[in-house]
Amino acid sequence: MLFHYHFWTPYVEETEKFYEDHGFRIVQRVGKYQGEFQNFNPPLKWEDFRDKKVMIRIIEARKGSINITFGYGTKVKFDHIGFLVSEKEQETICDNAGRLDWKVDRGERRTFISTPYDFRIELQTHKDLVDSMDDKIEELRMETKKEGLEDDFFKLFGQPVKQIHTVNGNNVTIREAVMEKFPANSAVDPNGVRILSKGAQ
Questions:
Q1: Which pTM value belongs to this model?
Q2: Which tens digit of pLDDT belongs to each residue from 44-101?
Q3: Of the candidates 49, 94, 104, 148, which lies 20 to 30 Å from 36 by C-alpha distance?
Q4: How many CA atoms lie less than 13 Å away from 148 in the CB half-sphere?
């Protein structure tokens, strides 16, 4: 199940506000302060630490089965999408990645697959990263610099990934995300992702 995407962005606070204003719950904030990573989680507000010039590494926002993360970068950069899978599915997908000659980086909490399309795929087996099975990502419309992603996804997952649609372009990013029960017909986040409510396309 497609559940996740991650961006690096200079608009960290603005991105948090956008998703919070559209019904997402901010779960965590991790930032580097005085050389060490620390938590600045809610109920702390930005006013509580803005003057400390914290370098935000990750902010996690959740809504139902949607999990979106973002952290500070000097420019907007799309990093990865994530799928919630069973352990058996993860093994099969990793085997298929090997056949594609895609690098697999297994970790304790998650596995990353590097693609030749300049973004990564996260495989997640821990269901505690979503609040419920409601409010799904119905579709992602992605821009890639090279063709073939949808065919390669078929080879990687062993079946069509119907939520992913691609167009060729000059960037690697998510152009649009269609979400179930998104509270606005259409809105654009600070990183250029246009979000549509299911049925409002």
A1: 0.93
A2: 999 999 898 899 999 999 999 999 999 999 999 999 999 999 999 999 999 999 999 9
A3: 104
A4: 9
Q: Whole-angstrom Cα distance, residue 147 to residue 169? A: 9
CA gyration radius, the chain: 17
Cβ atoms of 142 and 178 closer than 8 Å:
no
Q: Helix axis angle, 87-99 relative to 149-157, nearest 10°?
A: 130
Domain span at residue 50? Answer: 2-197
161 SS3 class:
coil
Domain with residue 24: its CATH number is: 3.10.180.10
Phi-psi region of 181 (alpha: psi -120 to 50; beta: other; left: phi over 0): left
Q: Are 164 and 3 in contact (CB under 8 A)?
A: no
Q: Could you read off the pLDDT of 125-146 as tens digits, one per residue?
A: 988 888 888 899 999 999 999 9
Q: In the sheet where 173-179 sits, what is the strand order?
A: 164-168, 137-144, 173-179, 194-197, 186-188
Overall domain count for the chain = 1
Judge contact between 76 and 7, C-beta under 8 A. Answer: yes
